[in-house]
Amino acid sequence: MADKRISEMRTRHEILTELSYPPGELDRGYANRTLHVDLDRKIIEIRPVSEQMKALWVGGKGFDLWLMFREINSGTRWDSPENPICFSSGPLGGTASFPGSGKTLVTSISPLTNSIMDSNVGGYFGPYLKFAGFDALCIVGKADSETILCIDAVRNRITLETAPLESIDSHLVAEEFTEMYAGSEDDKRNIAVVSAGRAADHIRIGVLNFSFYDWRRRVARLKQAGRGGIGRVFRDKKLKALVIRNRDYTPAWRIVKSKVSDIYVPNVASMPDIDRASVRTTISRWNDDPEYVIEMMQDIQDRDRHISKAAIDEINAMTGVPKAELYHIATFYKAFSLAPRGEVMIQVCVGTACHVKGSELILDAFERELGIRRGETTDDGRFSLEAVACLGCCSLAPVVKIDEEVFGNAQAKAVADIIERKRG
Amino acid sequence: MQDLETISREVNRDLRAYKATLMVCTGTGCISAGAFNVRDALNRILKEKSLESDYLVIGTGCNGFCAVGPIVVVQPEGIFYQKVKAKGDVEEIVEKHLQKGSVVERLLYRDPATGQRFQTMADIGFFSKQRPIALRNKGIIDPENIEHYIGRGGYRAIRGILESGSPDEVIESVIKSGIRGRGGGGFPAGIKWRSAREAALQRREIPYVVCNADEGDPGAFMDRSIIEADPHSVIEGMMIGAFSVGANEGFVYVRKEYPLAMARLGKAIRQARERGLLGKNIFETEFSFDIHIHRGAGAFVCGESTALMASMSGKAGEPRAKYVHNVEYGYRDKPTVLNNVETWANIPVIIEKGSDWFASIGTGNVRENPWGGSSGTKVFSLVGAINNTGLVEVPMGVTLREIIYEIGGGIPGGRRFKAVQTGGPSGGCIPVEKLDMPVDFDSLTEAGSMMGSGGMIVMDDRTCMVDVAKYFTGFLMDESCGKCTPCREGLPALYETLDRICNGQGKEGDIEFLEEVSETVSATSLCQLGGTAGNPILSTIRYFRDEYHAHIRDKRCPAGHCKALITYSINHEKCTGCTLCALKCPSGAITGEKKQTHRIDPLKCIKCGICFEVCNFDAVEVK
After folding, report:
1. CATH architecture of A2-245
2. Is B586 part of the contact surface with chain A (CB cutoff 8 Å)?
3. CA-wise closest residue to A326 among A302, A301, A358
4. Among B39, B252, B298, B416, which one is most buried in terms of CB atoms within 10 A?
């Protein structure tokens, strides 16, 4: 069993050194601490970040280079023990404010050029390092045997451990450590692993692999710091992996199913045949003009009560708008549905005025009576229930609209009767 | 083309030939209350009695006083009948009022506070404080008949300009009037026009004018009502705009949820084309202009200008960064003027009566600087916990108190006023202490809310402010297009925290977290949807921190709204044992013998609120 194998691997770890540290507070993007690991002397230490360092060496690359300058001298070669590998994601790292702020910069002296090389990589390691309270990580020295560095931000403990049994190949070792350090399936997304793989033992173009856990596919996936062969340096230090465990406080991990895969794919087989000719007539009424695809789709939706695969195909063929864009439109706008909507459309207004006057209770009543949730259609295809934001009859709040008929001042107690009448 | 004066003379002569005109409000609100039936019944009875040549029935646009619909106004006296039913009431109006000349007392509006009945619209507090400019023709004309609009002086402004005006003069006069965009942003319309004109001249491009009728703010229906009541005023406004920037094509982007507005606008455009008011060489001048309608497809974010342009081009409505302005590169990358319905509807009046007249209404001095104040009037939809719900148009600068108590008639059921929410999901909640604040663009912004398109939702002490914040955040989370990270990820984080607080699982530090994330989302989002998304949360925390504390520390919802924090119970003294609640309870939680007091099993109760609704004796209590 996988679990047994993993726990056996873990029991074989021997802790070389460990450091407990106080959790850090982030201030304007900085933790104001860097982490230093010396594999020769088996020392882990925390160093402060000076104001000067922030002013002069701004950014992930800046910090990395500054840390490197302090370690190397004119004689340092790529395989010298003092050649450091530095990781930093800069002050914006992990802030989720801008595209690219999840990236990490890695620097080292390159085995390919023998000069300093920087490499930019995704994955979660950099942001998690920041969340753990460190602006950068600098590793120097060489280990005696296969070693890992483990930063556990849950326990606020950093350890240097031997790890003899785990795989070396990145795609395996990332899975193994993710399994080993995660508390639960949901917690796996809090683990990030950096590794280099077996090839990096032999060739100078070895890359670093940064993992992130893909909860949709339930696998640890990899991003590469590819430039300069820093993976070769990593393996030269006999590092098997860097593992970081994040405190579970990253904003709002949400498990959201893709609308297209959820609604569209299961219905492919049962999709009713529709009259392609009538779809074509609709499209030509708008002169096959790509600018009017939304109008075409509205006409089709009104008539067929959904946008079928056939309709997407026809629009694509006649207007030349890519299917991906058509699906984007069909799932972006609320007016469109990829699965057929019911014959009777029940819209419960949840605009502000209606909300204040208790529309939530009415919506609940419809859900209860119809046995479906908002946004769904009954199995017999008779009723669809939708919550809409404002029908513009706010003075009659709360409002329910059934097909074209508007019911003002609606009450939850009347819902059962309304449905009874519509069923009848 | 026929002369406007001739049309006007003829239509007014025809209308005067009738002994009386019956104006039946056929706005969406009154229709759902049965206005079409009332109109048809009136026509039928008049025909039966062979009176159809003496009396004319007109279906008008929204009258504004939606709370008392369906409404029939008998002109020329202006007798205002409310809550008219197709059966019974209509016969009485015809027989008693029209034939015998005496007013039907029981259908007159009755003041809920004093019980006094009023005969005409002008007497009723709801109308007497108003000053209709954008809604100048509401309830007076048939929106589906262009002649009525012309009869009220319509299309004179554009004719005057075409005969003897220059684009620069028009733009100058719109700037001087100080009119600021009624869609929410409050950007001076004239300045927008001037930039578009300059960009068009410089690049030798033909610009476009666009009317934003994608009124997505929940709780607002001004634009719908304007189009339903007076579509030609919007068309004329767009013509004036088009002439001054040099456009010859215009577009109206209408929400799909407004089928009636779309139909009436479509009809108005067709009529204008038939009369030569749209098309080539209008009024035998060089000016050619036509308008097309684009249907929105249900996305709130499409009210945002750049998203609207994307949607009009047949793309998903995702906003873009605004360093390139629409007035330079808008629809089809041409200079584009985008104004909302109410702004366009104001334009013909400004041209006709002059910028000085318009600037004299409202607050501040806008003559030198359009940012210096708020001129003109603003239409608000007054809804929620208020007696006189409906649409009101008031000069800028009136106080909230005047709107809520004098026009709105106060809070029903003797409840206490708690807050008024303005500005839609991007706005905020204004508490009772600020009731005497003047309503204009700048004061509202200062109070942490905004003008928005003009929705005003009044809340009483049964509205939970944490729930309101959660409601708006949930709305914005659903409507976020997902393009930029702070809005896409920040809003769910905020929503989950608010949801937790409402479920009684709030903890210390939540308020600070909400404030911090709200500020980040607002500061770093691409468009104004995210840029103002923090307002509902920040304004409720600012004014109602106590309520947050009650939820977080005491696990109590003072308003009795949050399901997880309330219980339903039956007051033994009031319960008569009528068994109605037990019959209606969907979860079988209520037990009790006939004529004995009932009780609710808290374990089975799903808190659906039905017992509270059905009880005729107020015996069901929420705590």
Report:
1. 4-Layer Sandwich (3.60)
2. yes
3. A301
4. B252
- Tens of pLDDT along A35-69? 999 999 999 999 999 999 999 999 999 999 999 99
Q: Is the ipTM of this complex over 0.90?
A: no
Q: Establish, for the pair of chains A and B, how many residue pairs have beta carbons separated by less than 8 Å.
A: 181
Cβ count within 10 A of residue A171:
15
Q: Where are the alpha helices (DSSP H) in A197-292?
A: 230-236, 259, 276-285
CATH number of A344-423: 3.40.30.10
**B478: which 2 tokens?**
């659903």
Other CB atoms within 10 Å distance of the CB of residue A313? 14
Cβ-defined contact of B613 to A411 (cutoff 8 Å): yes
- B103 and B160 co-located in one domain: no
- What is the predicted pLDDT for the residue at A265? 43
Taking alpha carbons only, the member of A20, A16, A250 closest to residue A128 is: A250
Within a 10 A sphere around the Cβ of A113, how many other Cβ atoms? 13
Q: Which residues of A touch B472 (CB under 8 A)?
A: 352
Query: Using a CB-CB distance cutoff of 8 angstroms, which residues of chain A are in contact with residue B33?
Result: 396, 408
* Nearest alpha-carbon partner for A138 in A43, A205, A204, A258: A43
Alpha-helical runs (H) found in A245-292: 259, 276-285
Beta-sheet pairing, A116-121 with A136-140: unpaired
Query: CB distance B219–A321 less than 8 Å?
Result: no
Query: Quick check: is B474 in a domain?
Result: yes
CB B28 to CB A353 under 8 A?
no
State whether B285 and B328 are in the same domain. Answer: yes
Structurally, how many domains does chain B consist of? 4
Q: What number of other Cβ atoms are within 10 A of residue A49's Cβ?
A: 18
Nearest CA among B225, B482, B410, B4 for reference residue A259? B482
Residues of A in contact with B258 (CB under 8 A): 392
A423 touches chain B (CB under 8 A): no
Q: Residue B529 and residue B423: Cα distance in Å, rounded? A: 12
A345's CB contacts (< 8 A; 6+ apart) are A384, A386, A401, A402, A403
Torsion of CA A118, A120, A123, A124, to 10 degrees: 70
- Contact by Cβ (8 Å): B426, B450: yes
Q: Hey, are the CB atoms on A361 and B609 less than 8 Å from each other? A: yes
The residue out of B371, B395, B410 marking a domain boundary is B371
**Averaged pLDDT for residues B34-62:** 92
Question: CA–CA separation, A155 vs B88, rounded Å?
Answer: 78
- What is the C-alpha separation between A189 and A124, in angstroms, rounded? 9
| Distance (Å, whole) CA B152 – CA B147 | 9
Q: Which domain holds residue B520?
A: 465-552
What pLDDT is attached to residue A255? 43
Q: In this structure, are residues A398 and A359 in contact, taking their beta carbons and an 8 Å threshold?
A: yes
Query: Which ranges of chain A have pLDDT less than 50?
Result: 1, 250-258, 261, 264-271
Provide the pairing of β-strand B72-75 with B79-81.
antiparallel
Please identify which residue in the block is written with the tokens 């919007």.
Answer: B234
One domain for residues B212 and B64:
no
B91-128 burial code (b ≥16 CB/10 A, e <16): eebbeebbeeeebbeebbbbbeeeeeebbbbebbbbbe
Q: Does B370 touch chain A (CB under 8 A)?
A: no
Per-domain residue ranges for chain A? 2-245, 259-332, 344-423
Asked if B257 lies within 8 A of A399 by C-beta distance, the reply is: no
pLDDT one-digit tens code per residue, B287-332? 999 999 999 888 888 888 899 999 999 999 888 877 788 899 999 9
CA torsion sign, B522 to B527 to B532 to B533?
negative
8-state DSSP, A174? H
Task: State whether residue A400 sits within 8 Å of chain B by CB.
Answer: no
